[in-house]
């Protein structure tokens, strides 16, 4: 499985992980409908169905290996027009929110 984290997102995530009491970053599907899904982030402990993916930013990400929507996710952090995380999966044709 693959996960990409942009430089902006990595800075914010590293601050959160420092306060996360040893937990890892999990990307999850929060809502699925039709041919696309919405993603979320949380700090969590690894589960039996997880794959721990090491990103090029040195951040370990938990992905449920049974969920094909998670393979290839990209985590970004935008400051404009609204500050916050944006999670997409270009490999699944999901390039942003609708």
Write the layout of secondary structure elements.
Blueprint: E1 3-5, H1 7-18, E2 24-33, E3 36-44, E4 50-54, E5 60-64, E6 73-78, E7 84-88
Parallel strand pairs: 1-6, 2-5
Antiparallel strand pairs: 2-3, 4-5, 6-7
List keywords for this structure.
98 residues, mainly beta, 4-stranded mixed β-sheet, 3-stranded mixed β-sheet, 7 strands, globular
Short structural summary:
This protein is mainly beta. The chain has one helix at residues 7-18, and strands spanning 3-5, 24-33, 36-44, 50-54, 60-64, 73-78, 84-88.
Count of individual beta strands = 7
Distance between the termini: 25 Å
Low-pLDDT regions: none
Q: How much helix is in the residues?
A: 10-25%
Average pLDDT score: 92
Any idea what the shape is? globular
Indicate the proportion of strand residues: 35-45%
Strand order of the largest sheet: 3-2-5-4
Q: Note the main sheet.
A: 4 strands, mixed
Given helix and strand content, the structural type is mainly beta
Over the alpha carbons, how many angstroms does the gyration radius reach? Answer: 13 Å
Number of helices: 1
Order of helices and strands: EHEEEEEE
Describe this structure in words.
This protein has 1 helix and 7 strands, in the order E-H-E-E-E-E-E-E. The longest helix has 12 residues, at 7-18. It has 98 residues and is mainly beta.
């Amino acid at each position: 499985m693959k996960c990409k984290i942009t430089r902006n997102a990595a800075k914010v995530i590293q601050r959160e992980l420092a306060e996360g009491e040893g937990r890892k970053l999990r990307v999850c599907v929060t809502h699925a409908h039709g041919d696309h899904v919405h993603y979320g982030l949380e700090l969590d402990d690894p589960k039996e169905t997880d794959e721990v993916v090491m990103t090029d930013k040195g951040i370990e990400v938990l992905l449920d290996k049974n969920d094909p929507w998670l393979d290839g996710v990209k985590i970004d952090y935008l400051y404009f027009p609204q500050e916050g995380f944006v999670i997409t999966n270009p490999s699944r044709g999901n390039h942003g929110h609708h």
